[in-house]
Amino acid sequence: MSDSTGQTPATALDTFPRLLMHHAKVRPQRPAMREKEYGIWQTYTWAEVAQNVRAIACGLAQLGFKRGDRLAVIGDNRPRLYWSVAACQCLGGIPVMLYQDAVAEEMAYVLQDAEIKFAVVEDQEQVDKMLEILPQVPFLEHVVYDDPRGMRHYTQTLLMGLDELEEAGRIHDRNQSDFLDAEIDKGASDDISIMLYTSGTTGKPKGVCQTHGAFIASAKGATQFDGLTDQEDILSYLPMAWVGDHLFSFAQAMYAGFTINCPESGETVMNDLREIGPTYYFAPPRVFENLLTTVMIRMEDAGWFKRRIFAHFMDVARRCGADILDGRDVSFGDRLQYWLGNLLVYGPLKNVLGMSRIRVAYTAGAAIGPDLFRFYRSIGINLKQLYGQTETCAYVCLQPDRQIKLDSVGKPAPFVEVKLADNGEILVKGPMLLKAYYKRPDATAESINAEGYFMTGDAGFFDQDGHLKIIDRAKDVGKLNNGSMFAPNFIENKLKFFPYIKEAVAFGNGRDYVTAFINIELEAVGNWAERKGIAYSGYTDLAQQSVVYDLIREGIEKVNAELASDPMMSSSQIRRFLILHKELDADDGELTRTRKVRRNFISERYGILIDALYSDKDSQYVETEVKYEDGRTGKIAATLRIQDVKTFAPQSAKTAA
Q1: How far apart are CA 360 and CA 234, in angstroms?
Q2: Do 219 and 230 form a contact (C-beta atoms < 8 A)?
Q3: Strands, E, within 413-467: which ranges?
Q4: CA distance 373 to 382
Q5: How far, in whole angstroms, is CA 112 from its chain's centroid?
Q6: What's the Rg (C-alpha) of the chain?
Q7: How far apart are CA 159 and CA 144, in angstroms?
Q8: Bridge partners (DSSP) listed for residue 574
Q9: DSSP code string of 246-270
Q10: How confident is the model at residue 626 (pLDDT cuts 50, 70, 90)?
Q11: What does the pLDDT read at residue 10?
């Protein structure tokens, strides 16, 4: 693998194991990973990571793991779980990532579909899920756990600690020192490097098989596009089963050689973010929304002087902050004001958010509100949007620096070709495309057309500058009875830009007008209610209070005013809404694990509520079965209010009815 100078030629770095061993050779003492444990950051160099990966790989081989076998990996972001992914790849195996918060039944489906014999899991909680579904997956032979806490009295023969596996692997590696290098040499760019399951919004999830070459091409394009180096720090806290985490926290780190930082737990992410101060950051819009909501709640509780200072300098930031970030001409007076604002407000605020060192931040997975996007860029955070899917390694479009548009996802990324079908569906081609859906040649054939373009299922258009704008999922775009377009996701995203709305589901296809279900954002609405002196006993009680309905109605009317100014969407203004008595939940089948709405399921489950919205009723009783975290089931019952909303004349701010 080395040339006469001792350097590994770039052409040879075509699999992740080869990249790992390359980093261990050229930057052995650079930090590859950090993990916070018991309040202390532990650092692992590239050389140490390579040694641990060797040990896990050899340990798996000793257990009988063979080329082509699938290894389930389940848990929070832990270094040893990332190492297990790399170890599996060293042996020519296929890591299969599962969402750690999935219930046992969901895991059983993936384990059956992927024919899993080996699993590496984080802790006792995940072990218990494996044991619960064992009768359904009798071919599961080995479950290896990372965290031994609580495992002392487990006697099942298929269980093994990762410490024990690594020790066995080290002995194997000493006795057969050329074994693993030979296995790595057998690897090829076109080998499947990972299997990630789709979210399953319309049916059973499908296993997306991606090659080493696909993810390496995506990582290469993205790192070169944004000038990333081995000096970057990233916080890895999003689910390992999500394609976004695999691109940012595994593929790009493996390509560029930068440092992955794993937080202590989901609850400590904000503190850990401040301590690490990442230079490179990725989060879905919901995380950026929650951060901003937290800031605004704290400011509302601050004294009047602080509120005045904050309001003044945020006005300055809105006026010129994004222009300063993009290097545009700004008057001396505004620059001076912004400099002072950075000293008093923006700098301390970025420090509180853990974003003081960020050079590039990305968001994806859903639309982000223009006001939210503008806020982060105005205080000097280089936030950009990207567009991609599991089947494209989360890599299709990127926003170039100084060409940021709030309502677009940017231009086609390096190596990617994007075009539109006659019906507006987005078609993409490039090295990042999936190799296949696992055991689904029919689905693979249906997803790629005769010209080799992957059919994304998203509808969109290019603006005059070549930036792509997403409208909705093509299959979800329908028509109202008057023939005008109905794009539910477009409407829902506008509703969710309102800080008091957490989730929304719009209805209207084949109907005379649009209606909506709303989930309130409990923390934001709860804080608002407390400041108003409004007592409530929980989500259901708060959601049905008349003042909360008035609050949400105001937000919906603002969205209606925006829709009225859009010629394509003016007929899609919301006429009636209700606030659901419970939060939509993945455990109840209403959302996917990536928090996408499962429309068909919701339409069937809440059919009585939809019928009520399209009647003259002003309330409707409903009972809903729910699942609790401990596996128990129960029922939530409530009489839900239904409220009308003011709509606006098209192309006008005047009220119509």
Answers
A1: 10
A2: no
A3: 417-420, 425-429, 436-437, 454-462
A4: 10
A5: 25
A6: 26
A7: 6
A8: 514
A9: IIIIIIHHHHH--EEEE-S-GGGHH
A10: confident
A11: 47
| The model's pTM | 0.83
CATH architecture, domain defined by 477-644: 2-Layer Sandwich (3.30)
User: 325, 339, 327: which is closest to 378 by C-alpha?
Assistant: 325
Distance CA(412)–CA(274), nearest Å, equals 33
Determine the topology of domain 14-216 in CATH: Rossmann fold (3.40.50)
Residues 609-631: what's their mean pLDDT? 88
Residue with tokens 């593929």: 251
Cα gap 138→612, rounded to integer Å: 47
Query: Which residues, listed in sequence order, are joined to residue 137 by a DSSP beta bridge?
Result: none
User: Phi, psi at residue 231, to the nearest 5°?
Assistant: -90, -5
343 CB contacts (<8 Å, ≥6 apart)? none
Q: Which strands make up the sheet holding 397-398, listed edge to edge?
A: 280-282, 360-363, 383-387, 397-398, 411-412
- Quick one: which H or E segment has residue 502? strand 501-507
Domain ranges of the chain: 14-216, 477-644
What pLDDT is attached to residue 4?
A: 37
Mean pLDDT of 258-283: 92
Residues 6+ apart with CB under 8 A from 2: 8, 9
Query: Which residue, among 36, 8, 12, has the nearest Cα to 23 in the 3D structure?
Result: 8
Tokens of 265: 């737990």
Q: 3-state DSSP call for residue 211?
A: strand
The residue with tokens 């020790």 is: 167
Residue that the structure tokens 């009520």 belong to: 612
Checking if the pLDDT of 9 tops 50, the result is no
Quote the CA–CA distance of 23 and 123 in Å, as a whole number.
Answer: 29
Dihedral sign computed on CA atoms, order 422, 426, 431, 434: negative
